[in-house]
Amino acid sequence: MEIKQFVLNPFSMNCYIYFDENSKEGIIIDPAADSEKEKEQILEFIKKNNIKIKFIVNTHGHIDHILGNKFAKDSFKVPILMNGKDEFLISAAKEQSRFFGLNFPEPPPIDTYIQNNTKITINGTELIFLNTPGHSPGSVCMIDHQNKIAFCGDLIFKNSVGRTDLQGGDFVTLLDSIKNKLFQICGDDYALYPGHMEKTNVKDEKELNPFLK
Ligand SMILES: [Zn+2]
Fold first, then answer.
1. Where are the beta strands (DSSP E) in the chain?
2. Which of 47, 97, 154, 206 could staple 135 via S-S, CB 3.0–4.6 A?
3. C-alpha pair distances (Å), 76 with each of 31, 102, 172
4. C-alpha 134 – ligand 1 centre gap (Å)
5. What are 82-102's pLDDT values in tens digits?
6. How far, in Å, is the centroid of ligand 1 from the Cα of 136?
7. pLDDT single digits (tens) 148-159
8. How far is the centre of ligand 1, averaged over its atoms, from the C-alpha of 196 (Å)?
9. Ligand 1 centroid to 154 CA: how many Å?
10. In the beta sheet, which residues pair with residue 135?
11. Ligand 1 centroid vs 170 CA: distance in angstroms?
12. 185 CA to middle of ligand 1, Å?
């Protein structure tokens, strides 16, 4: 599997394309392109590499992660997956987009509600979802156990954690999700691809993350 990262929109949010280099099947995670240039970059990469996008995944429902849902749905015409507990954030996001001056066209509906243990497969590679609330009620991680990779949204960052002062956020719940959910099923050698800033791994965060001490 290969990972292509795009840093998008004024919030510097990480969008990932996760794809199988042989079959060229892949998924796009948080395709929150704001400008036309960002949309072009994504489409160009997909075209150049012949990638067949099978799913659109939202790690959670915040504006900086979902504002490109219409763009992605129109471009790839595949199901959008998100945890239903964050659906209320989509209406809040409309307000926020006006406040931040972002381009947020009417978002298409969620096609599949992610549950704990929801699975999708990319040419035989299984991707499994884990509910990890705290940053938002419907925040999820997507884990590839075969390749020891977790896409963790805004749950945890390199030496930091997701903010919990937004609607439905809760710090105790967030710590529980990191320590008792994510770290229980992902060992020290798992790479973590967060929704902002650079990638990290479970071992480094256990040792160095000041919020987990
Ligand atoms: Zn967020």
1. 2-8, 13-19, 25-29, 52-57, 80-82, 112-113, 119-122, 125-131, 140-144, 149-153, 156-157, 160-161, 191-194, 200-201
2. 154
3. 11, 22, 38
4. 10
5. 999 999 999 889 888 888 888
6. 7
7. 999 999 999 999
8. 9
9. 5
10. none
11. 13
12. 23
Q: Report residue 157 as tokens.
A: 């960052």
Length of the chain: 213
Q: For 48-93, write each residue's pLDDT tens digit.
A: 999 999 999 999 999 999 999 999 999 999 999 999 999 999 988 9
CA of 98 to the centre of ligand 1 (A): 17
User: How far is ligand 1, taken at its centre, from the CA of residue 204, in Å?
Assistant: 22
Residue 196 DSSP code:
B
How would you label 26-39 residue by residue, b for 16+ Cβ within 10 Å and e otherwise? bbbbbbbbbeeebb
- The rounded Å distance from CA 7 to ligand 1 centre is 14
CA of 122 to the centre of ligand 1 (A): 26
Tokens for 78, please give them.
């595949």
Q: How far apart, in whole angstroms, are the C-alpha atoms of residue 89 and residue 71?
A: 19
Average pLDDT estimate for 133-146: 98
CA of 138 to the centre of ligand 1 (A): 10
Q: Which CATH number fits domain 2-212: 3.30.160.40, 3.40.50.300, 1.10.510.10, 3.60.15.10?
A: 3.60.15.10
